Every structure is written in structure tokens, then in C-alpha cells.
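Thought: the user wants the 3D structure for the chain below. I'll pass the sequence to the structure tool as-is, report back what it returns, then summarize two notable features.
Action: structure_tool
Action Input:
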Amino acid sequence: MTGLHERLTQIDDARELSEFRAQQPAQMRAAGPGKIGELRLGFSLRDGRSVLHDLYRVAPLLVQQALYWDEAMPELPICSIISVGGGILQGDRYRLEINVEEGACAQVTSQGANRIHQMDANYASQHLEVNLGAGAYLEYVPDFTIPYRDSRYINETEIVIAEDATMLYSEMMMTGRKHHHSSERFGFDLLSMKVSARRPDGRRLFTDKVLIEKGNGTVDFTAVMRGFDAFANVVCLTPPENAARISARIDVNFPSSERRSISGVSMLPNKAGLMFRAVGVETYDVRAEVRRFWQAVREETRRRTLPEEFLWR
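Observation:
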């Protein structure tokens, strides 16, 4: 496992942070006491049931307990990440670690949207490390990330997954607070989202990175985000036979009188699984597309579906 301070140092070295790195917030120095949040979750099988057996938390990150409220998959422990700070501020550093042991399953979500507040110094970062054992299953499905005007945020996710395990990893993002003020749309300074995966023996599977910097006019091109304000990248890491069945069910979607979104699926390299991407006018347009893919993943890998009255419906 990579130590907290070693991981923070590695993120600090990212090229896109060069112009913000030396700036220190006047209120409290970056990564100082009270600015570092940690969360570790460990899931395992106990007496034939998946349980949250390991929980370590440092405010402002919090998880209270695992709940079993999914009627379509009652064996699934669900943990909701709570941020008691009301959002991410300049100088904040978060580290999350999720471990799902052999044969266990879990879902990790969030209490609400991840709000990246306006900044005038430094930046905020988060590092997520995920480890899945043989036959494990994990759904990591937090709510939207909403970057406010002038915010700077970098997130790096590292996944270590066994050959026969399955993980659904979702990133949903807004272009800003579109209903707050017109200057909020792509008004942030930096949004950097990187996810990479490898096998337990070190074999690298893929790396994907979304990088949006202020002043890059290409983000609003017709083939990118023109006309859309919400987008999602969803990774499904699963064995090739599962990926083939899921892909066969997901058609390319274009806007119509009933839909205001575009979505499609592609194969990841090294037979790692699938990448699903969607853009939409509003958050609920993108949520509907993510839910469609999520349901296919569940049904083809676990022989379970999503509840009829699921919160993203």
C-alpha cells in the first residue's frame, strides 16, 4: 500500500498543478491539520455473508455503517461516504482505500454531490486505491462532482483487480453550477480525473485521464460538450465473457424526442472490460444512461437487477 504522504507527494508532481502548487491559502496551509481526510473500508465474507469488517475514518470523511437496503440484491452491503465539511475546499487532501476480499461484494456511494468550492490559492486532491480479490464484486457509484468557478481539483484512482473479479467504477461530472450563473459553465481552473488498473502481479491494464483546463476552447466543440452540461465515464472491469454479453446489450444512443443524451460503450485494452461514456443536458439525463449500463452489468455478472424504485431512476 502506498503511504498517505508518499501518495500526496506524487499527486503534487502532476504537470497540471505547476501554477497552483506554491500558493498557500491564507486561512490554513494546504494539507495541514484538519485538511487531510482519510477513509479505509474493508469488505469480506463472514459466515457466508459480505460484511464491512474494517473501517478507519478521519474527518471530514465519514462512513457510519453498512446497510442492506437493496431488495434486488439483499446480500450487498452498501456504504455511503459522508463529508461533514460541506464540500471540498482549497488545500484539502483526501485519501480513500477500498478493499474487497475474495468472494465478497459491496457498493460504495456518496451521500450527495461532491462540491468543489471556489478557490483563490492552491488546489484540492483526492487519491482512491481499490483492491479486489478473486471473485470479488464492487460497485463504486458516487454522485456528481460539481466544480465551482475558479476551483482546482485533481483525482487519481488506482485499481488492483483479480482476473475473475468485477468492478463498476463511475465518474459523473458537471461543467459547473449551470443554474447559478452563466460564468460557472467551464468556469473552473482545473479538473483532472485519472483512473488506472492493473492485476495483482503488476500487469498494467489501462490508464484513462480526463483533463480540463481553463481557456481550452475545444471542450465546447460540437463533438465534445457543445449543448451538454453533464458527462460520465464508467468503467466495468470484468472477465471477457461478461464484457461481451454486456456490450451486446448496450446500443449507441443519440438524442431524440425522448432522450437528451449521447452514450456508447467501447472495449478496454488487455481484455480488461468496458468503458461507457455519456453526455447529457442535465444530471438526470446522464443518470438515466449510467443506470442503463449499470443494470446490464449487474444482470450479466451477478444475475441480479437494480431495484425498480432505485434513487437514480
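Final Answer: Structure generated. Residues 42 and 152 are 30 Å apart (CA to CA). The first strand starts at residue 36 and ends at 46.
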